[in-house]
Specification:
The complex is a heterodimer of chains A (441) and B (497). With 441 residues, chain A is an alpha/beta fold. Chain A is 37% helix and 15% strand. Chain A has three domains: 49 residues, no CATH class; 114 residues, Alpha-Beta Complex (Aspartate Aminotransferase, domain 1); 252 residues, 3-Layer(aba) Sandwich (Aspartate Aminotransferase, domain 2). In chain A, α7 packs across α8 and α12 packs across α13. Chain B has 497 residues and is an alpha/beta fold. Chain B folds into three domains: 56 residues, no CATH class; 257 residues, 3-Layer(aba) Sandwich (Aspartate Aminotransferase, domain 2), CATH 3.40.640.10; 123 residues, Aspartate Aminotransferase, domain 1 (Alpha-Beta Complex), CATH 3.90.1150. The two termini of chain B are 29 Å apart. The chains are: A alpha/beta (441), B alpha/beta (497).
């Protein structure tokens, strides 16, 4: 099956119109000596049923969160995805369209992204949101570019308690540029800022990678006193309960939008959230949807501030991003409409309740303790006797997934994350802790 | 779209439907005796009022997004001959395989032991891409083409650094290149040097030779190029770049033309990125997600992003491995894995024969459509094209004051998505047409007829082109006003300008 519709007659007529004898003749510009001259070693074509069964078999080799009860966190969470979200965001008009370069034929995607931007502004406390970036890591990285351009500085103070993978991405992508990343340590669960003088930006995560809540207002004061911007990587589902980073003084708010109706997908496709103040609008990366009117005065949407972007500005563009994660932004738009102001509050309440119940119970297990005393939201660090990695592996064998283990942080080889979303129940929490007690005994 | 009846209510923002007290969500009710937020979180951190999200019923939101979707063109609505975008059919089976819970509910922090199926799929997919591109290894971390470009250039940089030679500071790019190329070059810490396109629409080998020196890290090329022409002197170009220690980068935007016919590795390329949302038909989602894996030759393989899959040949188990000379991590986790599942599904469905048909018929379709339009429209460069071709509306502008954009907008009224317009920049009044292999001769004939009717209208009734489109949900939109009166979020009616 190759999905091409050509009959033998079609091909003959088409070649005749073109004025060549064979399809092979159309490839004349390609020098013969460069050609492969054989079929690719790819196997024979397969029927759809064979393909499905093969993929089903591969999927079955994974022990995913359909088979393990998920208490894992660390930047990706097992929230429930409502049927209405899958139905709306899964519509093929959203799924099988290209970037809205022809706005007259793209009012659907543009309208859904405009709604997304509006809701992201509400959650972040910011004035302008983009249409989304690859993931949380990409969003943090783009925020560094913005802060450096806005301040003319290259030093960036990064909390140790941001997602360690994001920090690795910043180090990789910043290596060829002039940035100097300085780590602000996090000994007691929240970040201790040392010298932020001369920094372009201070970066914190709220809640941070350990689940703990940072003092965003104090971080903003500290950053602003040094003439730096405050970049906050936030959890979009935390602001049903917590003050928005923007209202506490953040200049750029970024985040991972996986939790807004997107599947775990082994890490992608996810959604990078990026919002800031209007003063920085022209330094933003990627696409932004704006409202306007058509020639008849009828309201409509277009991509706007495009002179920032690579297809216009080329090497002077604010970012190289082109294809982003629009469908995930549309999904988030539907999900947040479904959730509403009451739902986001209730969902946050339930995450807090179940996570704290898990902490209370697990903290009482012999040899275990909740590592940090700072308040936390949807996850916490649990110290276990011995290797956390081992404990997690044995816990999985009894049907529960927690983690990740925190051996990437020096001295935390005996620590792991435990997260609880609204999908978990009190009974599951109690059972998981009981199983954990058994596997570490 | 024009073939759908208009919804009774014009869709505004979902906020326009919001009524206080209405809701769609259901959240499990709290249990008695468990801690509450008020018990455990400091009062100062809690907000008094929930964020202002829309308050709508489930039916309200389903209608809103359904009606929005009906205002959107898509491959499943009609032909989408957008040049350089490869808008081919996205098979339905791909959505089913990607949605298998073993893939879609796999947590990214799960250890490799629990993700053997995912690792096996990534490993197998790497073998397929290596065979298709003629490279040695590949990484799936880049989430889109531009991310692939940046990763590829960082690999080039790491390679030169490891060679211990002179630091190189410049990358060559043809003036016909996609905008992501120069934008990426700067982000990788290099300067851009532009190479002009010659009268044949190709890179001039002498210009490349003259531009190459010890400071040039390499040349980024799309082949076939954005004019739809194969760079037939590619071997000479590769020699010129390699002889000065430079590397040759293949932008995979146009790979659809040559799969199974000629491989980037055999042309002399050292680094390749593949747009899986183009060639391997993962749905483009109105702008993304994509997937932009990078494949490299063996001398560059040690520098690929970490982690990368490994296979223990004794146990048959897969694991994640950090390469000591790696450029590091370029994605929060492992890239857009869900899109890799779709692309893998596609490649094993098609097999070698299907992939061969793919390129042959993509090129057949483009040449057929080009032949039907030539004579009425001018191609930027006459003769055979590969999978796409570029028309110029230069003559229409001179004779009738009709621009490429007018022709594009009129195509909307005729029931087609327009081609890419005003790109590549080296062609005046450019219209870049890529039909793809999944369109039938009958559809191509209808599209050609529409183009030809528009050409006649340009002479007889130019106003109908200036006023187009009239059959779309909105007419031409005022982009200048969108910038001048910037409104990028919903505001209550009384606050709107």
């Amino acid at each position: 099956m190759d999905y091409t519709p050509h009959t033998t007659e079609d091909i003959a007529e088409m070649l005749d119109t073109i004025g060549v004898d064979t399809i092979e003749d159309l490839f004349a510009p390609i020098p013969q000596n460069l050609r492969l001259g054989r079929r690719l070693r790819l196997g024979d074509p397969k029927s759809e049923s064979e393909v499905y069964d093969q993929l089903y078999g591969l999927a079955a080799l994974n022990t995913a969160t359909d088979r393990l009860t998920c208490f894992a966190g660390g930047g990706a969470y097992d929230h429930y995805i409502p049927a209405a979200v899958r139905a709306c965001a899964g519509r093929s008009e959203f799924m099988t369209s290209y970037t809205p370069y022809q706005p007259e034929l793209s009012q659907g995607v543009l309208g859904a992204v405009f709604d997304f931007q509006s809701m992201i502004c509400e959650l972040t406390g910011m004035e302008i949101s983009g249409s989304g970036l690859y993931d949380g890591a990409a969003a943090v990285n783009e925020a560094v570019h913005l802060a450096s351009a806005a301040t003319g500085r290259h030093k960036v103070v990064v909390s140790q308690a941001i997602n360690p993978n994001y920090r690795k991405v910043m180090d990789s992508l910043g290596a060829s540029l002039e940035y100097e990343f300085v780590t602000a340590p996090c000994e007691n669960g929240t970040t201790d800022f040392g010298d932020v003088e001369g920094a372009a930006a201070v970066i914190i995560s709220q809640p941070n990678f350990f689940g703990c809540l940072e003092d965003v207002g104090a971080a903003a004061e500290r950053a602003h006193a040094a003439g730096a911007l405050l970049i906050v990587h936030f959890d979009p589902l935390s602001v049903g309960l917590l003050e928005s980073p923007g209202s506490l003084g953040a200049d750029v708010v970024v985040g991972e939008g996986q939790c807004l109706g997107n599947d775990l997908n082994y890490g992608g496709p996810y959604l990078g959230i990026f919002a800031t103040r209007l003063a920085h609008a022209r330094r933003m990366p990627g696409r932004i949807v704006g409202a306007t009117v058509d020639v008849h005065g009828k309201p409509g949407y277009v991509l706007t501030l495009q002179t920032r972007e690579q297809h216009i500005r080329r090497e002077k563009a604010t970012s190289n991003v082109c294809t982003d994660q629009t469908l995930m932004a549309v999904t988030a738009s539907v999900y947040l409409s479904w959730l509403g102001p009451q739902g986001i509050k209730e969902l946050g309440e339930r995450c807090v309740s179940l996570t704290h119940l898990a902490a209370e119970l697990a903290g009482e297990l012999p040899g275990c303790r909740v590592r940090f005393e700072s308040p936390f939201f949807r996850e916490f660090v649990l110290e276990v006797p011995g290797s956390a990695k081992e404990a997690l592996s044995r816990l999985a064998a009894s049907g529960y997934l927690a983690g990740p283990s925190l051996e990437m942080f020096p001295g935390m080889e005996n620590c792991l994350l435990v997260a609880a979303t609204e999908r978990r129940t009190v009974a599951q929490v109690e059972q998981m802790v009981k199983s954990l007690g058994q596997v570490i005994a | 779209m024009s073939q759908n009846p208009s919804p009774a209510i014009e869709e505004g923002s979902i906020y326009d439907l919001s009524i206080p007290g209405r809701r769609a969500s259901t959240v499990p009710t709290p249990d008695a005796g468990v801690p509450t937020a008020a018990d455990v979180l400091p009062g100062g951190m809690l907000r008094s009022e929930s964020p202002h999200l829309p308050e709508v019923s489930e039916l309200d939101l389903v209608r809103h997004f359904t009606n929005l979707s009906r205002k959107n063109w898509s491959i499943e609505v009609g032909a989408y001959p957008l040049g350089s975008c490869t808008m081919k059919y996205n098979p339905k089976i791909h959505e089913q395989t990607a949605a298998l819970p073993g893939f879609s509910r796999l947590h990214p922090w799960q250890p490799a032991e629990q993700a053997q199926g995912a690792l096996a799929l990534i490993w197998e997919m790497e073998q397929l891409l290596v065979e298709i591109t003629g490279m040695a290894r590949a990484s799936f971390q880049p989430a889109a083409g531009a991310a692939g470009e940046l990763t590829g250039l960082l690999v080039v940089r790491a390679y030169h650094k490891a060679q211990g030679g002179t630091p190189r500071d410049t990358v060559l790019i043809p003036d016909s290149a996609h905008g992501t190329n120069p934008a990426t070059v700067r982000l990788a810490g290099y300067k851009v040097k532009q190479i002009p396109t010659d009268s044949r629409g190709l890179v001039d080998i002498e210009t490349v030779r003259n531009a190459m020196d010890d400071n040039v890290a390499g040349l980024m090329l799309t082949n076939p190029n954005t004019l739809g022409l194969f760079e037939r002197e590619i071997e000479e170009i590769a020699k010129a770049v390699h002889s000065k220690g430079g590397l040759l980068y293949y932008d995979g935007a146009n790979l659809n033309a040559i799969v199974g016919v000629v491989r980037p590795g055999d042309m002399g390329f050292d680094v390749v990125h593949i747009n899986m949302h183009k060639t391997f038909t993962t749905p483009h989602g109105g702008g993304g997600p994509g997937s932009g894996p990078v494949a490299v030759s063996s001398r560059l393989a040690p520098f690929l992003p970490s982690p990368i899959p490994g296979l223990d040949s004794e146990t048959g188990r897969y694991f994640w491995e950090d390469l000591p000379q790696s450029v590091g991590r370029v994605h929060g986790f492992y890239g857009n894995f869900g899109m890799v599942v779709r692309a893998y599904t596609y490649l094993i469905s098609l097999g070698a024969d299907g992939l061969h048909n793919l390129s042959e018929r993509a090129v057949l379709n483009a040449n057929y459509l080009r032949t039907r339009l030539e004579g009425t429209y001018q191609t930027a460069h006459p003769g055979l094209c590969m999978h796409e071709f570029v028309l110029t509306a230069r003559k229409f502008r001179k004779d009738y004051g009709i621009r490429a954009m007018d022709i594009a907008k009129r195509l909307i009224d005729k029931g087609f998505h327009p081609p890419t317009v005003y790109f590549p920049l080296v062609v005046e009044e450019a219209m870049m047409v890529e039909p793809t292999e999944t369109e039938s001769k009958q559809t191509l004939d209808a599209l050609a007829d529409a183009f030809l009717e528009i050409a006649a209208e340009a002479a007889s009734d130019p106003d109908v082109l200036h006023e187009a489109p009239v059959r779309s949900p909105v007419g031409r939109l005022d982009e200048a006003r969108a910038v001048r009166q910037l409104q990028t979020r919903w505001k209550p009616a009384e606050q709107q300008s």
